[in-house]
Amino acid sequence: MTIGSDRVATPHPLRGRAAIVTGGGAGIGRAIALRMAAAGCAVGLIDVQEEALARVAGEIGAADRQVCQAVADVADEEQSRQAVDRLRRDLGRLDILVNCAGILRLGRLEEISMADWRDTFRVNVDGLFHVSRAAIPHLRAQGSGRIVNISSWLGKSGKAYYGAYCASKAAIISLTETMALELAGDRITVNAVCPGIIMRTGMRDRAEVELQQLGLPSAEARMAGIPLGRLGQPEDVAEIATFLASDAAAYMTGHTVNVTGGLWLQ
Ligand SMILES: NC(=O)c1ccc[n+]([C@@H]2O[C@H](COP(=O)([O-])OP(=O)(O)OC[C@H]3O[C@@H](n4cnc5c(N)ncnc54)[C@H](O)[C@@H]3O)[C@@H](O)[C@H]2O)c1
User: Any residues with Cβ below 6 Å from ligand 1, and which?
Assistant: First the structure.
């Protein structure tokens, strides 16, 4: 007997699909690219780090999945457009866009440099805007699509020293909602993921050094405040991003999904 739905879970829910993942060279973006490839997806990677891109492409290629890569700065509109157009050509189609590239610059609002403030918005907000605008015509031409934006639990609240980052991640939540409304008629869903404290990433490693210099608590020290009792891993986020990109999430759009181990409730 089938209860509720006759959909059968498949180990390859993205078989035959193609995705572009920005920030795919490291951390959460890398984990999403690997997870989507394991789910049967062809993957195009965008990152500023050429060597890191080649490494991840090698990992995906070794698992016999189609992969291609483009070195591009998402903060640059023209580079973003060229990268998306080229990857779309190489992949032969485009069904999924994951906007994951992002940076963190710590500093209290009176102290943060204008360069750090502007870079945060150039990468985290302008970057998502540029890549999405380049990808949307391809998704529309495909007849349907999925956009998954990586925001943060800090996009839902303020935090001392994180002002620029929090504001940029809040902008991603807002843009997710607008994009969801504007693209629903094209059968393109747009959702955001809000990760909590995620270890084993370049951003986290750099933040830990800076937090120590500022005399602020480390991730390890904050673990006690996480109801599920452990810090997050890139794979925790990758699993949810892959779900949001799959047919199983067909009736979800405009949502922001917390992946925080319950940290959000504290
Ligand atoms: N690690 C965490 O605790 C955490 C928590 C919440 C949200 N996030 C978000 O997850 C995303 C990935 O972060 P991560 O922790 O994996 O960090 P990471 O530094 O390991 O990965 C970020 C990737 O983005 C790339 N990138 C940076 N600027 C770019 C640009 N201008 N153009 C193209 N690529 C660029 C980097 O080269 C890197 O490969 C970010 O958007 C971050 O804000 C991370």
Answer: 22-23, 25-29, 46-49, 52, 73-75, 100-103, 123, 127, 150, 152, 195, 197-198, 201-204
